[in-house]
Design brief:
alpha/beta, 8% strand, TIM Barrel, two-stranded parallel sheet, six-stranded parallel β-sheet
Length: 413
C-alpha cells in the first residue's frame, strides 16, 4: 500500500465509501471564517445530497481512512476475507486532502469512516487525530462527520464529539439474530451502549452550555445510524419498530436505510439479488411519518402487508394506512385539527400549514386545496371541502385499485 500514490488511494477509498449512506446532515452550529482567522464554514441546512436555503448543494469529501479490516462481516465488501485491493491513508494525508479540496471549492466538509485495523482503539485514534488536526492546527470551520467505532475507548468517543459536528454508529442490521448471523464479531449491546454514552455526553454538554457560555460543544449536529435492508430475513415491520426504538432511546437525528447490494465474491449466506430500491424508499417515507406526521411505530407497521410484513411497493405507506382506516375519513379541510389533516394522503406539512393559515380568512374549496398539492386525485376520497363531499367515492369497494398508479414504461425523450 505504501507504493500507491495519493491519487490512487483516493480512487480506492472514495469508491469504498459509497456504501455508507449516512453522510447527510442538518442542524449543526453555524460557523464561518469571515474574521480572517480560520478556514471553512458551515450552513445550518443540509450537508451532502441536501440543499442549503440559497439552493446550493453542499458536498463532502467522503472517504475511508482504510478499507482494510480485521472483521469478517458477510455483507461488507471490505471484510477480512474479501479480495478487494487495499489502501490506507495516514491522518496527515486526509487532513491535506480535505484542505486542498476545500481551497479548490470542491467540498465544504469531511465525512470520514474506516475499516478497523490493528484494534478499534488504534483506528479511532487515527480518525480523532484527523478531526483534531483540522480544528486545532488549521482552524478548519467546515463540517466534519466521523463514523465512530462502538468498541473504542469511551474517552476516544468523547474526543471525537468535541471535534466533529456529527457522530454516527451503524447498527448494521435491524435484528440481533441477523447481526449474529452476518456479523458475528459485532455486538448489538455494545453498539447501543456506545449510542447511549454519546447521548449522555450530548445531554451533559448541553446542560453545561446553558450554564456556562464558553463550555465546549459536543457533536452539535447529533448522532445518526444506518441499517442494511434485505441482507437478512427482517421484514419492514421489524425495521420500523427498531428505528422507532432507536429514536426514542437515543434521540437520533436520523436513521438511514441502505438496500443490500450484492458485492463481488459474496458470502454463501447472503441473498443472491438485491431487494427492490422502492423498498428502501418506502422505509424512508415511513420514517418521515413517524418524525413529522405524528404516526406511532405501531400505526406505521399497521400499513404493512399482513403476510409479508413489508410495506406495499405500489402505494406510499401513508395512503396504505388511510385505506386500512377508512372510518377516520373523510376529514373536513375547514374544521379538522392539524394532526388529522397531516394524515390525509397527498397533504404534506407545508400544505397543511398553508391550509390552516388560509381557512382563518375564508372557507376553502376543493380547487383551493388543489393549488397546494401536485395531485388532487389522491386527496378527493379523504377530504370534505366547501364545495365537495365524497359521498359515493369514499365508500367504493375498489377505491384502493382506483388510487394505485398503473405501471408505465419510462421514456428517454
Amino acid at each position: 500500500m505504501s507504493a500507491l500514490s495519493t491519487r490512487k488511494k483516493l480512487e480506492i477509498l472514495a469508491d469504498a465509501a459509497k456504501y455508507d449512506a449516512s453522510c447527510a446532515s442538518s442542524g449543526t452550529t453555524k460557523r464561518d471564517s469571515r474574521d480572517g482567522k480560520g478556514i471553512g464554514s458551515t450552513e445550518g441546512m443540509g450537508i451532502c445530497h441536501a440543499y442549503a436555503p440559497d439552493g446550493r448543494c453542499i458536498s463532502l469529501l467522503k472517504i475511508l481512512l482504510t478499507n482494510s479490516c480485521i472483521f469478517d462481516c458477510h455483507y461488507c465488501i471490505n471484510r477480512r476475507s474479501s479480495d478487494v485491493r487495499r489502501a490506507r491513508f495516514t491522518a496527515r494525508e486526509v487532513v491535506d486532502l480535505t484542505l486542498s479540496f476545500y481551497r479548490r471549492n470542491y467540498i465544504e466538509g469531511l465525512f470520514l469512516s474506516s475499516g478497523i485495523i490493528r484494534s478499534s482503539d488504534y483506528t479511532m485514534e487515527q480518525m480523532v487525530e484527523v478531526a483534531r488536526s483540522l480544528r486545532e492546527d488549521h482552524d478548519f470551520r467546515g463540517y466534519i462527520h466521523l463514523k465512530t467505532i462502538p468498541d473504542a475507548d469511551p474517552e476516544l468517543l468523547r474526543q471525537a464529539g468535541l471535534h466533529a459536528d456529527r457522530l454516527s454508529i451503524n447498527v448494521e442490521l435491524p435484528t440481533e439474530p441477523g447481526l449474529k448471523r452476518l456479523a458475528p464479531e459485532k455486538d448489538g449491546r455494545r453498539i447501543e451502549g456506545a449510542m447511549a454514552q454519546m447521548r449522555s455526553q450530548m445531554d451533559d454538554m448541553g446542560d453545561a452550555r446553558r450554564k456556562y457560555r464558553h463550555a465546549p460543544r459536543f457533536a452539535p449536529a447529533g448522532q445518526s445510524t444506518q441499517m442494511i435492508v434485505g441482507a437478512d430475513a427482517a421484514d419492514d415491520r421489524a425495521i420500523i419498530q427498531r428505528a422507532s426504538s432507536l429514536y426514542d432511546r437515543h434521540r437520533l437525528r436520523r436513521v438511514y436505510y441502505s438496500a443490500f447490494s450484492p458485492i463481488p465474491s459474496p458470502s454463501s449466506v447472503l441473498p443472491l439479488k438485491r431487494p427492490p430500491l422502492m423498498r428502501e424508499h418506502r422505509l424512508y417515507q415511513s420514517d418521515w411519518m413517524m418524525r413529522f406526521y405524528g404516526y406511532s411505530a405501531a400505526e406505521v407497521a399497521a400499513a404493512t402487508d399482513r403476510d409479508s410484513g413489508c410495506l406495499p411497493l405500489d402505494i406510499d405507506p401513508k395512503l396504505a394506512w388511510a385505506l386500512q382506516h377508512r372510518a377516520s375519513f373523510p376529514v373536513d379541510v375547514n374544521h379538522a385539527p392539524r394532526e388529522m389533516l397531516l394524515r390525509v394522503p397527498g397533504l404534506g406539512v407545508k400544505a397543511v400549514d398553508r391550509i390552516l393559515a388560509s381557512r382563518r380568512h375564508r372557507r376553502l374549496r376543493l380547487e383551493d386545496v388543489a393549488r397546494l398539492t401536485t395531485s388532487i386525485v389522491k386527496l378527493r376520497p379523504f377530504l370534505i371541502a366547501a364545495d365537495w363531499r365524497p359521498v359515493q367515492l369514499a365508500d367504493r369497494v375498489d377505491l384502493s385499485a382506483q388510487l394505485r398508479r398503473p405501471a408505465a414504461q419510462l421514456e428517454l425523450f
